[in-house]
Amino acid sequence: MKFILINDVFGDYKNSCKYVANEIEKQLNNKPNSTFILPTGSTPMVVYDELSERDLDWSKATTYNLDEYLNCPIKEQTYEYFMDEMLFNNINIKRENINFPTDGDLNYGLDVDLCLLGIGTNGHIAFNEPGSDFDSETRIVDLTENTIKDNSRFFYDISEVPTQAVTMGLKPIMSSKRIIIMGKGEKKKDILMRALHGDITEEVPASILQKHKNVEVIYCD
Ligand code: PGA
């Protein structure tokens, strides 16, 4: 595994996002029908801004989003809405090539060229919370109190945060050919360090990445 400390290599958050956007651009140029796994959350937002401003051909590409809330009462808080606003409405991807785990596809997100991940403060990737089976498939999960609290910053009130989601499993995520995981801010530094240098344990779901051959870890303040 390569461990890139972005502060040393790229300078700051904006530059690290540019780096990630460049890697996605290269992937698309080398293979127009590439498949990508994409995250939501605050961390990748500037990556999506960058990509939205570039004149890239997404017409043959396929995307799989990592997760989606179940029974989200507010349309604007769904991850599908977030992705439309942040990226899909701004690029020429075909609607039928955009996938969410709520679609019910049993082979969801297998054989992906490039997977971009964020990380939760409890070490989750997608909504694979601590204790998730390393062999887990795409499925419905209960969100932990920690995640509900973290995500409540996007809602008016914590009671509005959905308590369940559909998440891509750790097994399909690990089947990606290449993974880039990003963490921003002090809290993420601690958990990234635990995930990358600590025990490989289901209590820290992101620690499974130590078993993958092609992962880049990007941390920025
Ligand atoms: P964040 O979320 O990018 O909003 O910090 C990441 C995650 O919980 O996976």
Strand content: 15-25%
Helix content: 25-40%
Uncertain regions spanning at least 5 consecutive residues: none
Quick one: overall form? globular
* Largest sheet report: 7 strands, parallel
Rg result = 16 Å
SS-based structural class?
A: alpha/beta
Provide a quick synopsis of the model.
With 221 residues, this protein is an alpha/beta fold. The protein contains seven helices and ten strands.
Q: What does this 3D model show about the protein?
A:
This protein has 221 residues and is α/β, with parallel strands linked by helices. Helices cover 29% and strands 19% of the residues. It has seven helices and ten strands. It has helices at 6-9, 13-30, 45-53, 79-86, 145-151, 170-174, 186-197, and strands at residues 2-5, 35-38, 62-65, 67-69, 98-99, 114-117, 139-142, 164-167, 178-184, 215-220. The strands form two sheets. The protein has a seven-stranded parallel beta sheet with strand order 1-10-9-6-2-3-5. A three-stranded antiparallel beta sheet has the order 4-8-7, with no helix packed on it. Strand 9, helix 7 and strand 10 form a beta-alpha-beta unit. The chain is globular. 42% of the residues are buried. The mean pLDDT is 92. It binds 2-phosphoglycolic acid (PGA). Residues 41-43, 118-120 line the site of 2-phosphoglycolic acid (PGA).
Summary tags:
binds 2-phosphoglycolic acid, 29% helix, 7-stranded parallel beta sheet, alpha/beta, 10 strands
What's the structural blueprint in terms of helices and strands?
Layout: E1 2-5, H1 6-9, H2 13-30, E2 35-38, H3 45-53, E3 62-65, E4 67-69, H4 79-86, E5 98-99, E6 114-117, E7 139-142, H5 145-151, E8 164-167, H6 170-174, E9 178-184, H7 186-197, E10 215-220
Parallel strand pairs: 1-10, 2-3, 2-6, 3-5, 6-9, 9-10
Antiparallel strand pairs: 4-8, 7-8
Helix pairs in contact: 2-3
Bound molecules: 2-phosphoglycolic acid.
